[in-house]
Write a structure and sequence with these properties.
- This protein is α+β, with helices and mostly antiparallel strands.
- The chain is built from nine helices and 13 strands.
- The relative contact order is 0.15.
Length: about 300
């Protein structure tokens, strides 16, 4: 029976999440990191499917799902959020079939930059992406610390915060920050996070000045976070770590770009340790990564 690639449907997304989790845990296990992925409701995948159905693809053989690919577009950026093939099926060309569909989505979008985040030890995938014109830019580190340890060590200046709301002036301000830091507006993604993204969003204030934003979820994870000026990243990250600790989650975590020396210093000074090394790849350089912390490898 031959493998067929087709557009994803809403009812595929729970099974696709199972496939992605098992694929990630197989990969991290083989490289000595142990399992790191857990199942979660595919809410952002559902949002992306509704927003742009051309970005989600399934590879299947009969009734069995063998692979899943998911990409989204904002402005002139195309982002490959996930491309995974079930363990034991990688040698059958399923990944090549899926990447052909996702790159067709990129071409159709007219995006001038193609971006993804992958595991730094996944050299096979990196070679595939390089052949398609995406090149390594810098590492991104998944860092974490026990909540109680972080609370004991957390010190230094922090910002005042107010909750993010979905009013026009707030969305305009968020879009302006993203355009300044990343070169694109992500207004639709802020709407998603504020309304149904499983995270709390905060304005960051230095007195009367608005300096940026931060999101923190119930699991103690920080991100995305953006600040208008590079010097603001240290107090912004301390503020977000404090908010994450207040969530009551047993661990606090974040994704920190290797291009942000200040953010990495803050994390290490407060007892956070690197869990997983990742890598940002893109078709061209972009962004002020000393001023932005990603949410996760699928959201950026």
């Amino acid at each position: 029976m031959s493998v067929i690639c087709r557009p994803a449907r809403p009812q595929d997304l729970e099974l696709a999440d199972d496939l992605v989790v098992s694929s990630i845990n197989d990969l991290t296990g083989r490289h000595g990191f142990g399992p790191m992925a857990v199942r979660s409701p595919p809410d952002f995948q559902r949002f992306s499917l509704k927003d742009d159905a051309d970005g989600l693809w399934v590879a299947e053989e009969g009734e069995r799902m063998l692979g899943f690919a998911w990409s989204w577009v904002c402005g002139d950026m195309w982002f490959l959020a996930q491309l995974f093939v079930t363990p034991g099926q990688q040698a059958r060309g399923v990944g090549n079939e899926l990447i052909t569909r996702t790159l067709a989505h990129a071409g159709k979008s007219g995006a001038s930059n193609r971006v993804l985040i992958t595991f730094s030890f996944n050299t096979v995938s990196q070679g595939l992406y390089i052949r398609h014109g995406l090149f390594p830019r810098f590492p991104i580190y998944s860092v974490s610390a026990p909540r109680e340890q972080l609370i004991r060590s957390l010190h230094g200046p922090q910002y005042d915060v107010t909750p993010l709301t979905e009013d026009a002036s707030t969305l305009r301000r968020l879009a302006q920050a993203d355009e300044r830091v990343l070169g694109i507006s992500r207004e639709k993604h802020h709407r998603y996070l504020i309304n149904a993204g499983g995270a709390r969003g905060f304005n960051l204030h230095d007195g009367s000045d608005w300096v940026g934003y931060a999101y923190v979820d119930g699991g103690g994870h920080v991100g995305p976070l953006a600040v208008m000026e590079p010097h603001a990243i240290a107090p912004a990250l301390r503020t977000a770590l404090h908010l994450a600790a207040e969530s009551g989650a047993p661990r606090v975590s974040a994704f920190l770009p290797g291009a942000s020396e200040i953010a990495l210093n803050v994390a290490i000074e407060h007892g956070m340790r690197i869990k997983i090394p990742m890598l940002l790849m893109s078709s061209r350089e972009f962004g002020n990564w000393a001023q932005y912390l990603p949410r996760n490898p699928g959201f950026m």
